[in-house]
Specification:
Blueprint: E1 3-7, H1 13-22, E2 27-31, H2 42-45, E3 55-57, E4 63-64, H3 67-77, H4 88-114, H5 122-130, H6 134-159, H7 177-191, H8 198-208, H9 211-219
Length: 223
Amino acid sequence: MALTLYMTPGSCSTGIHILLERLALPFAAHVLNLPAGQHRGPAYLAINPKGSIPTLVLDDGRALCEFEAIALWLARRHPQAGLLPQDPVDEAQAIGLMADVVGHLHGQAFTRVFTPERYLPPAMADALAAAGLHAAWREAVVAQGREMAAAAFERIAARLPPGIEHEGFAFGPHWGVADAALFYPEFWAEKTGLPLPARCAAHLQRMRAQPVVRQVLAEEGYR
């Protein structure tokens, strides 16, 4: 039984897709159409009760359902790849950066940008629509998300090495799980016209230059 990645092109699962390709692991890709609600279907909820992506089903049938859990499993299952720093403090900081990216930058800021309706009860949405205020409310939530994302990128940029414009990645000369996690919201920022701090912009371009990243973006439909 091979690994199976449940994913959606251009989503947070892109980071895991990049890691799998970096490790040259054979896996089956099962694409979920989020706008169509496929992640809420009974078959997928039986695998991942949260209905979130990505999910990686292992060879033995067990499922890993969180970005950080999947990334750490891959890094520790394949230590020769150097996806985590060797220094324990650097390793902890890499995990912390990944958690900040996934939990706050993605989970709080970009969810407001992409799915503002999530932040308003349906009854209130109906009342705002009846009053002709739904569009203004939606724009306000999106604007808040963009402000939160901009602030998070500034905070993250301060943690990146000063010389990243010229060489290296978040935690050394080689990229790892933290870089794969940071890449996908940087990619979102570029696609939505959100300016990035210089170090994050440099990190995005250094990741884009990696052959495996170019391969994954092409496979997911980005040219």
